[in-house]
From TrEMBL, chain A:
GO cellular component labels: plasma membrane
Matching PROSITE patterns: ABC_TM1
Domain ABC transmembrane type-1: 84-290
Protein name from the UniProt record: ABC transporter permease
Organism expressing this protein natively: Methylobacterium oryzihabitans
UniProt topology in membrane: Multi-pass membrane protein
Family classification: Belongs to the binding-protein-dependent transport system permease family. CysTW subfamily.
UniProtKB/TrEMBL annotation, chain B:
Keyword Cell membrane attributed: yes
Protein name: ABC transporter permease
Keyword set, alphabetical order: Cell inner membrane, Cell membrane, Membrane, Transmembrane, Transmembrane helix, Transport
Organism phylogeny: Bacteria, Pseudomonadati, Pseudomonadota, Alphaproteobacteria, Hyphomicrobiales
Membrane topology type: Multi-pass membrane protein
Subcellular location: Cell inner membrane; Cell membrane
Species of the source: Methylobacterium oryzihabitans
């Protein structure tokens, strides 16, 4: 995971060389980092450790002992396994699609000398400023039975009955890609912008055709950006709730929906906590494998 | 201008195809918004596109429903409080990360950035678990704490990036001239940090205002954020009221962005 995740903080780490050894001692440093650490401890670490504990309790709220029973129940139940598989498959598909769609845009943003670049940049980040509910609602209107696509198709006489575009896995993919594409574009552009133009030109001068120069030189140099973009997109997809619910119309049950159901509706906290831990560990495993894969291929 | 541009390479055709593709992607990104705004002015109850008539009835419907206004108020208050707390904690931490070298710094910075990629549903469930026995569930401060966790990385990231670009010799000069550390920070470093902080704060406010999944576990009757109120409404009623709210939000966000773009250049702050 380290390769993949470190890409996220790369900008900061690279840009912050140690200027000198720790000066005013631990007290000053403690005062500076204290509030942030307190927030992280109270709002992230402690809740997650508590959840791990609850997921292992045999009874809730008054445990008599610890057990792996909740994990065993989930991991031997075909219903849950299907949901886990669907969640990670959705995240993988969304990551792949955003990477493929976003890479050329990032390339353009980072390397084009067009004067319209600034406008394009605003066009990429502006959707991030629009409520997710609004954007999802927009897609339900576009894809719905009475929606834009069906109106156009019926107007052209191509279909008589409205196409049911709104009830499946792919409408959720569409909505998630729409929401997460800007994250991928910005992550890749940050890295592509740093590639020395001369390196690619050198490859061309040395006889590589443009495709080869791209595949052998530019793409490997962009891997860090694709990696950090993929991590963001993957993690945001596995944790998403509103898009799968609104665009899936109850047909696309992902882990987020089940966790919400277990914890809020059924108030079965240990099962909900175990599902959340499985989601976390699953994500870590996928990202670690992905990081190792990229590291191997980046070295070639 | 022209002499600053890199030598023009003879690949205009492929550049033009790329530009056309980028235009399509921008259109794709804008599409749902382009659909929602016209519907807000529809006179029809159904969400069909294009709308059949023009009216402002859905805007007046917002005012007729006090729950939307109180949800807007709560969301705005949570966003402002969470952003303010994140600003203080984030700027202090950024100073530590940029100006100090200490063991484990890179790992710690990564920990601070974790909420950016932490699956929202997991954070939501975990926070609900610890907040329930503390009575923080369905409370303003419970929501605010959750939103601080989520906005802190955005503030920290822009603060670290901006602070890195500020030469520390300015502060040292002030120091040599007799300013104490606080005065040097307050009068020298902080003014130079301001554009970056403003951009980071804008992003944090929007992230908080739009947050859905984590809030979903922490809200309840009487303590409802606007995205949750809109979602609840959409579960039972599908009419253009939500499109009208969205349009109002869009106008408010655009005004805020334009003001900040004029003041500091938001695009610049995000490397554009």
């Amino acid at each position: 995971m380290s390769t993949a995740v470190s890409g996220l903080t790369d900008v900061a780490v690279e840009a912050a060389p140690p200027r000198r050894a720790a000066g005013r001692g631990a007290l000053g440093l403690g005062l500076l980092l204290g509030p942030g650490l307190l927030i992280l401890a109270a709002g992230l670490l402690w809740p997650c450790l508590t959840m791990l504990q609850v997921s292992l309790q045999d009874r809730f709220p008054d445990p008599t002992g610890y057990t792996l029973e909740h994990y065993r129940t989930i991991l031997t139940d075909a219903y849950y396994l299907r949901i886990i598989g669907r969640t990670f498959w959705l995240a993988a598909v969304v990551t792949l699609v955003t990477a493929v769609l976003g890479y050329p845009v990032a390339w353009y943003l980072a390397r084009s000398s067009s004067r319209r670049k600034h406008l394009i940049f605003l066009g990429i980040i502006a959707p991030l400023l629009v409520s997710i509910i609004v954007r999802t609602l927009g897609w339900t209107i576009i894809l719905g039975n009475e929606g834009l696509v069906n109106a156009v198709l019926r107007g052209l006489g191509l279909v008589d009955e409205p196409l049911k575009l709104m009830q499946g896995f792919w409408s959720v993919v569409l909505g998630m890609v729409h929401i997460l594409l800007p994250f991928m574009i910005l992550s890749v552009a940050a890295v592509v912008g740093k590639i020395d133009r001369g390196v690619i030109e050198a490859a061309t001068v040395l006889g590589a055709d443009p495709v080869r120069a791209f595949l052998r030189v530019a793409l490997p140099l962009s891997v860090q950006g694709l990696a950090s973009g993929s991590v963001i997109v993957f993690c945001l997809t596995v944790g998403a709730f509103v898009t799968p619910v609104m665009l899936g119309r109850g047909q696309v049950t992902v882990l987020a929906v089940t966790i919400h159901e277990q914890m809020v509706v059924l108030v079965d906290w240990p099962t909900g906590a175990a599902l959340a831990m499985i989601l976390t560990f699953g994500t870590l495993v996928v990202l670690t494998a992905y990081g190792l894969f990229l590291r191997r291929h980046a070295r070639r | 201008m022209a002499d600053l541009a890199p030598p023009v390479r003879p690949v205009p055709a492929s550049e033009r195809w790329l530009a056309a593709y980028v235009g399509l992607i921008v259109l794709f990104l804008a599409l749902p918004v382009l659909i929602v705004v016209p519907l807000a002015f529809s006179s029809d109850v159904s969400l069909t596109f294009p709308p059949r008539g023009v009216s402002l009835r859905w805007f007046s419907n917002i005012w007729a429903r006090p729950e939307f206004l109180s949800a807007f108020g709560l969301s705005a208050a949570v966003a402002v409080v969470a952003t303010a707390i994140s600003m203080v904690a984030g700027v202090l931490a950024a100073i530590a990360f940029v100006r100090h070298a200490f063991p484990g710094r890179d790992a710690l910075l990564m920990l601070f950035m974790t909420p950016l990629v932490f699956p929202a549903i997991v954070l939501a469930a975990a926070l609900a678990l610890v907040m329930t026995p503390l009575g923080l569930l369905r409370s303003f401060w419970g929501l605010a704490l959750a939103h601080v966790v989520l906005t802190l990385p955005y503030i920290l990231r822009t603060a670290v990036a901006t602070l890195t670009e500020i030469d520390r010799s300015y502060a040292e000069a002030a120091h040599t001239l007799g300013a104490d550390r606080w005065q040097a920070f307050r009068h020298v470093t902080l003014p130079m940090l301001r554009p970056g902080l403003l951009a980071g704060a804008t992003f944090a406010l929007i992230i908080s205002f739009d947050e859905f999944t984590v809030s979903m576990f922490l809200v309840g009757p009487g303590v409802m954020t606007l995205p949750l109120e809109m979602y609840n409404y959409s579960e039972f009623t599908l009419d253009p009221t939500l499109a009208a709210i969205s349009t109002v939000l869009l106008v408010l966000t655009s005004i805020a962005i334009l003001v900040i773009e004029k003041l500091v250049g938001l695009g610049k702050q995000f490397g554009g």
